[in-house]
Every structure is written in structure tokens, then in C-alpha cells.
Amino acid sequence: MKHPLAALALYLAAPMAGPGLAEAQTPFRIVEYATGLERPWGGAFLPDGRLLVTERPGRLRLVGPDGAVSAPLTGVPPVEARGQGGMLDVALAPDFATAREIYLCHAMLVQGGALTRLTRARLAMDGASLEGAAPILDAAPPQEQGRNHYGCRIAFGPDGAMYLATGERQVTKPRAQRLDDLGGKVLRLARNGASLADNPHAGRPGVRAEVFTHGHRNPQGLAFNPWTGSLWQAEFGARGGDEVNVLRPGRNYGWPLVTHGVDYDGSRIGEGVSRPDLEAPIHVWTPSVSPSGIAFYTGDAFPAWRGSLFVAALNPPGLLRLTTRGDRVTGEERLLGDRGRLRTVLQGPDGFLYILTDEGRGRILQLRP
């Protein structure tokens, strides 16, 4: 649906900081940039400024610089759109300008149940279709039980590798701790979905060589810190215990052995909040905020925000700004608490922030100075 900027309502937002949080100093305007989307989940800006957006029911659309939303692209692979599944993340290959290659992460129903699937395709030159869409990795094994916790965030690293976050699918057995299982992991992959020879578990018998880190519950935020080169991850806890982690090769991040949260019935999970042999998060939310997509801000439109990590939060809804120094979190500011469930935050080529709302009548909000 097309919305010329001149016709849009602009709102002056006064960010608020609570006790112990980052000082709020940057006013901004909120523009309803695009509407007419159903449960938008992931997005990636093309070199020409258009935004490629996934819709969880199984569609892919392009949003123009004027906010116009295209018809659904053809050639998109089928998905398992039940529970928390569907068409989830999308990422462009680093050489997209010449290769036209994109990657999709989605839920898929196969023999034996549902799983997280990584698919590679090419975006046609006219932008109306995908060409040659084919699966390159399944986060096996599939399972019949449940349709939640797919993870499904993709990030390309400065090392040229592709990183994929997968959920543990909300099962009672500890999939996240099994190294012969791709659930509850962050994987390090070549562009064809294969493991890389210098992965931390390469050559270990009985271990999936794709595994970069393990012990994750439902990671839906994944971004490289452009100043340190490290990989940051945001992860859902249960009741409390939502986390931000800095990922180190081969390390175990604890789920479900340790957590700051409790089960939904109030019972204890695991052995406590920490253990010396397990990696501790660098930031924890208790009570939960349900963190999803994350993005480091590197732009010039908001100079005071440079170096911040933005987190799209679902419950309670909002946009969280974490101030950082190196690989540490130094403060937190909570924004947009009245704009509904927020699924993904992206930095646009103009330096503005773009936020996808998790709604049946989904929107893209734009933050501008």
C-alpha cells in the first residue's frame, strides 16, 4: 500500500530513561512508512534502497522508498506456517549486487515433523520473483512435537561465513546440549550450507561440524559488532532470563542447564543462574522483554546513537537501546512502548531506523531525526 510521506502523520517522541538506564537525549519522529503487511518478520535493504520483507504466513514482498508494497513475489518456497513457524528471516549475500543471491530461513514440514530450513535463491532482475529456490540446510532432526522455537536469524560475518541461529523447538529433552543435533545452536556455514573446515568442532566424531555455539533456547537476534568484530545474539528465556550473549567459538551458553528464568508454571529450571564451565550472558532481562531482531547503529542521522545496539521487543512491546563499550553493555533506554509488538529493527541506507511490527495488519515504522 502506497503512503506518500507528505500525507503521513509525524509524531514527536520523548524517549524516557528509568533508574539505572541510559540517559535519554535524542528526540525523534515516528513515520508510518508502510502498511498492508501480515506479520512481517525479517527484512533486508537492496542496493537500490528497496526493502525485501518476509511475511510469516509464507510471502515475500518488496517495499519501495515511497512506502509502496509490492504484490507477493512468486517462486517463494512453501513453509510450515503454524505456531511460531512460517517464513521468517531473509538476508542478502555479501556480493548481492552482482550475484542477486538471497537466503531465507523458514519453518518446513518434512517426513518426521517440522524443522528450521535454510533456503538459497536468486532475486530476479525485475524483483517480481525468486529463481532457483533450493534448500541448503535442515536443522535436523525434525520433530512432530510442537511448532515453536525455530530461532531462524541469519547474519554474514566479516570472515565471509554465514551464521544461522536455530531454536531448540521447545522440547523437554535437552536438544540445545546435544552436539549431534542442530537445534538450539548457532551454526557457521559456507554459502552452500556446508560446514567450514576451521569450525570449532570440525573433525570431532559424533558432532555436527556446522555447530559454532550451543546451549541456546530460542535465539532470534543475531548481529556483528562492527567495532569489535564479535557476534552478538539475543535469546528468549522462559519467564525471565532473556539474554544478550557475545558468542565465542565452541562455547556452551547453558540452556537448559542454567538460566535466570523460571518455567511457565513457576518451577525452577536447571541448576541455577550460572556454572563456571558455561558462558554467562552480558545482559539479562528479568522480567522478560521477549527480544527478537537486533541491529547495531552505525549511521549519521542520530550521532548520539552510534555504537548502540537496538533490540526489537515483543512482550512488553518496545524498542530497546543498549549503550555499549567494546563487548559490554553499559546502559539501557526503552522506546516505543505504545507501538505494539516489534519483531525486527533495521538500519536503512539513509541512517534512519526501520521497525517491523508483529501484527496481522503489520506496519513498518521509520524513526527519523
From TrEMBL:
Annotated GO MF terms: oxidoreductase activity
Signal peptide: 1-24
Gene3D superfamilies per record: TolB, C-terminal domain
Keywords in alphabetical order: Oxidoreductase, Signal
Xref: InterPro entries: 6-blade_b-propeller_TolB-like, Glc/Sorbosone_DH, Quinoprot_gluc/sorb_DH_b-prop
Record Pfam families: GSDH
Record EC number: 1.1.5.-
Protein origin, superkingdom: Bacteria
Domain Glucose/Sorbosone dehydrogenase: 37-365
PANTHER family attached to this UniProt entry: ALDOSE SUGAR DEHYDROGENASE YLII, HEDGEHOG-INTERACTING PROTEIN
Protein name: PQQ-dependent sugar dehydrogenase
Protein source organism: Paeniroseomonas aquatica
Lineage, top ranks: Bacteria, Pseudomonadati, Pseudomonadota, Alphaproteobacteria, Acetobacterales
